[in-house]
Structure formats: C-alpha cells, structure tokens
Recover the amino acids of this structure.
C-alpha cells in the first residue's frame, strides 16, 4: 500500500512540474530598430515650396469696340513686339458712318465759310456764325469718334511678349463686355515664382538671414533654385525679392516672390515648379524632425544606451525651413545613438536590437 502511495506522489510531482513548465512566461523577442549615431555636420539644407510661375506682365487683350473678328495676325505661342498687329475687327459699317460724318463736317465748314463775310459786313449777327461754328465742332467730334472706333478695331500688342491661347476664331463677335479676352500677352523676359510660407517658416528664414533690417536681410539672401515640373533643375539661379506685408488672414501664410532670368523664353506663364531655399549650417547637430516627438510641453528624442535600452531625453531644437530637420541646441551629444524608427511606438526602457544607419544618408538622402 505504501508503495502505491509513493508512486502516486511521484506522478503528481511530475504532473505539477510539467504544468509549471507549460505556464512559465517567455521573454518577449528583442526587436530590431534603426538608429543613427549623432555627429556634427557642415551642410546646406534645401527647404522646398510649391510655386506658380508668371511673367513680368500678363496682359489680357480685349476689344474696345463691338465687331466681328475679321483677321487674326498671330498664332498661339508666337513671340511679338510692342505695337505689332494682333487682330482686326470688321469696320465696314463704321467706315460708312465715317464717310457720312465727314460729309457733314464738310457741309458745316461750308456754312461757316459762307457766314464769315456776312458777319464782317454786318449783314447778319454773330449769333448765326457762332451757331454754325458749334455745328462744325459737333460734326468734327462725331467724325473723330467714328475714326477712333475704326482705329480701335485694329488691335496691337501693348508690350513685348508671348501670345497665349486664342479662344475666339474668325467671325466671332466681340465687344468690350465680352468676358473672355481675345488672348493674353505675357512678358516672360523674367519669370516670377510665387509661393507661400507659414508664419513660423517666415520667421526662421528671416532669423537665419544676414542683415539688420528686413529689406537688408532680403537683399542678402542666397540665390534660390527652381525645380521644374519634370523634376529637372532650372539652369538659372533666382533671387527672393519680396515678402507680403502681412500674413493672409485665412491661411496665416506669407506670399513670397522670387525672380528668375528667362532670356531663352524656356519658362512660360501659368507653369509650376518647386522653389528650393538653401540654409548653410556649420558644426551643428542635425536630426530629422520625425526622430523626435512632443511629450506635454517638451520635445524629446529616444536615445539608445549602452545596454541597448531606449531612454527619452529632453532636447531643445530650432526648426530648419521646410519642416524636415531640427538643429539640436541641447540634449544630445556627439556619438549618441537615437531611434529613427518606431518613434512614438517604442516605450522608454524597451530593449532593442539597434541597426545603425549612416548619418550622412539621413542628412543628404540623395547623395550616394
């Protein structure tokens, strides 16, 4: 009997040990995350802003008088000079009216000439002569008005530029009230690139610029680049010329204008591109903005310690225009390793398997 109890006790112990093995918690796997080792950098960062392109002047060409389009002397995209003929409106009716008006001028002149000697001989009063002279002036005014109308029917370019679209064709009726212009002439000898920056970016740009006054800072700004819609960089450098005097009430942004030489007329009004504003930095710690996060009123970076555990470290930063990078003024040291993957997900104290990424590929991702 004792032997039976002894065997039962052994089996029970084995069963309990087996249960303990099955229920014992397993350690979570150590996950790999990308980190970067902090270093100082001398580099130029490019802040990018979408831009719309316009010529120095974009003038709508409209008819000043009513009429049908009789002739079109230009083609879309043609380069024209100031004073060059663009359109001619039908003037047959006006020409007939001008002939009649001219005849009235001649008749009124004859009447004045007839009355002058009669007044001199005091056969008639001055009133009759003055009335005749008034009729002559009225007839001349009517005639000149019709002639001006005929002249307005010949439409010339007010500036040197490029002809835009020609939405109306021969025979179309136009007037000064026609909504759609005959065409648009764009002076594209210089191209203006218009873009917007928010208030914070505007302050960052101006605080990094040399000079004392606002205008002096603008005058001393470095040249900017224009990346065209096909991804190619425009061969000419541009210059920022103006910031709007106040922020847009609806968007909180400032309008900025940069100018680019366009001697070969490659750029046209209505195009688009991307403005790149360079910022030179020397011997500073730079981190991607997405390698940090805000906790309450502080910004922190996740530093990996010597035991490969994550630690949240408060940092003080300055934003680089463009919204991609921070300059770190305090909180990080050279050779610190910071998390650049899983930020906002990995919690403090987590053990990770760091995968070190080359610092230069983060700062200059396009460089090989």
């Amino acid at each position: 009997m004792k032997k039976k109890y002894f065997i039962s006790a052994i089996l029970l112990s084995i069963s309990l040990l087996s249960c303990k093995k099955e229920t014992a918690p397993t350690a979570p796997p150590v996950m790999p995350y990308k980190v970067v080792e902090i270093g100082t950098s001398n580099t130029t960062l490019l802040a990018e802003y979408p831009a719309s392109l316009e010529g120095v002047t974009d003038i709508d060409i409209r008819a000043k008088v009513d009429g049908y389009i009789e002739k079109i002397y230009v083609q879309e995209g043609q380069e024209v000079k100031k004073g060059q003929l663009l359109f001619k409106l039908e003037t047959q009716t006006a020409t007939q009216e001008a002939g009649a008006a001219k005849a009235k001028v001649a008749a009124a002149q004859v009447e004045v000439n007839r009355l002058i000697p009669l007044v001199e001989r005091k056969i008639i009063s001055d009133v009759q002569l003055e009335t005749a002279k008034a009729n002559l002036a009225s007839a001349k005014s009517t005639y000149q008005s019709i002639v001006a109308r005929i002249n307005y029917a010949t439409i010339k370019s007010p500036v040197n530029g490029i002809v835009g679209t020609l939405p109306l064709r021969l025979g179309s009726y136009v007037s000064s009230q026609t909504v759609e212009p005959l065409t648009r002439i764009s002076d594209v000898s210089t191209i203006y690139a218009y873009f917007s920056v928010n208030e914070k970016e505007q302050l960052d740009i101006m605080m990094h610029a040399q000079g004392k006054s606002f205008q002096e800072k603008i005058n001393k700004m470095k040249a900017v680049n224009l990346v065209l819609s096909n991804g190619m960089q425009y061969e000419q450098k541009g210059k920022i010329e103006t910031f709007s005097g106040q922020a847009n009430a609806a968007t909180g942004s400032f309008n900025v204008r940069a100018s680019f030489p366009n001697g070969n007329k490659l750029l046209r009004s209505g195009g688009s591109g991307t403005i790149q504003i360079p910022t030179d930095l020397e011997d500073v710690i730079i981190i991607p903005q997405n390698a940090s996060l805000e906790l309450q009123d502080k910004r922190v970076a996740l530093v990996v310690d010597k035991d490969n555990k994550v630690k949240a470290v408060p940092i003080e930063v300055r934003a680089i225009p463009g919204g991609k990078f921070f300059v770190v003024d305090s909180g990080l040291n050279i050779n610190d390793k910071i998390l650049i993957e899983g930020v906002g997900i990995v919690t403090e104290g987590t053990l990770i398997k760091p995968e070190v990424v080359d610092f230069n590929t983060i700062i200059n991702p396009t460089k090989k």
